[in-house]
Write a structure and sequence with these properties.
This protein is of the alpha/beta class. The protein folds into two domains: 114 residues, Rossmann fold (3-Layer(aba) Sandwich), CATH 3.40.50.1100; 110 residues, Rossmann fold, CATH 3.40.50.1100. Helices cover 44% and strands 12% of the residues. The protein contains twelve helices and six strands. A three-stranded mixed beta sheet has the order 1-2-6, covered by helices on one side. The longest helix is centred in the middle third of the chain and has 15 residues. Bound molecules: pyridoxal-5'-phosphate. The site of pyridoxal-5'-phosphate has 8 residues, from helix 10. This is Tryptophan synthase beta chain-like PALP domain-containing protein. GO terms for molecular function: ATP binding; L-serine ammonia-lyase activity; magnesium ion binding; pyridoxal phosphate binding; serine racemase activity; threonine racemase activity. Keywords: Lyase, Magnesium, Pyridoxal phosphate. Its cofactor is Mn(2+); Ca(2+); Mg(2+); pyridoxal 5'-phosphate.
């Protein structure tokens, strides 16, 4: 008789474990930067705890995505010469850079509203860019067409871990979560002098939020915040485009 499936054994079946992460770390050694971990007295005061900011905005390619891209490309055989993805920027940039470092050709499908700074970087890393409309079906269709051009026998299978299927669930329920990431992004620019992009403001906004404070209470005294990317289009700085996003909470400290 087979053993009953425990929560832990299920998790192990679906997720990468520490050993996989360590193997990946080994694989990409010397290729990804070791980014600094910074602190800020202002941010500590605002959050009511000690925050540690992992500066992946200073990572190669401007975001944490180079780690996964390098790991994935390194695991491909020498016979694989081309890699394809669709991305509005960071993953495309990361894959383009990883491919150029490892001697492969990257084909990146980018939506027509992708930030100029990301498009320029993808081109700068030598990738072949295909532009498409900014809808998910258009992105998938364009990527499929590029893939079929590279290998007509290709089959595409999308996957994510069953116990971390956030993408599947949000697409299924059509939920749109709104987060105040722009004021957090501005606060980091202003007080920490770090250029981060809006998505990196999400983790900062969480660390400063009342919900998180209620959850963490006195239990979590030290919290790591990953500043996941710094690829901000300088012609479209959010609080310049929309002054409503210029409000910060710095007035609560002095
Ligand atoms: C800078 C940055 N932060 C966060 C994310 C979200 O990453 P994930 O989809 O792996 O949670 C992305 C990916 O699109 C990103 O580029």
């Amino acid at each position: 008789m087979s053993q009953p499936e425990t929560k832990k054994s299920k998790q192990q079946a679906y997720c990468v474990g520490l050993k996989d992460v360590q193997a990946a770390q080994d694989r990409i050694k010397g290729l990804a930067h070791r980014t600094p971990l910074l602190t800020s007295t202002t941010m500590d005061k605002l959050s009511g705890r000690q925050l540690f900011f992992k500066c992946e905005n200073l990572q190669r390619g401007g975001s944490f995505k180079i780690r996964g891209a390098l790991n994935a490309v390194k695991m491909l055989g020498d016979d694989v010469k081309d890699v394809v993805t669709h991305s509005s920027g960071n993953h495309g940039q990361a894959l383009a850079l990883a491919a150029s470092l490892l001697g492969k050709t990257a084909h990146i499908v980018m939506p027509d509203n992708a930030p100029t700074v990301k498009r320029a970087a993808v081109a700068g890393y030598g990738a072949k860019i295909t532009t498409c409309e900014s809808t998910q079906p258009a992105r998938e269709a364009a990527a499929q067409a590029v893939l079929e051009g590279v290998n007509p026998k290709i089959e595409i299978i999308a996957a994510e871990p069953a116990n971390a299927d956030d993408c599947y669930r949000s697409m299924a329920s059509d939920t749109h979560v709104r987060l105040d990431k722009y004021p957090a992004q501005r606060l980091v620019w202003e007080r920490m002098k770090l250029v981060i992009e809006p998505s990196a403001g999400v983790s900062v906004a969480v660390a400063l939020s009342d919900d998180f404070k209620a959850y963490a209470g006195d239990r979590l005294k030290k919290v790591a915040v990953v500043l996941c990317g710094g690829n901000q289009d300088l012609d479209k700085i959010p609080w310049v485009v929309n002054p409503a996003w210029s409000t910060t909470t710095t007035t609560t400290t002095s």
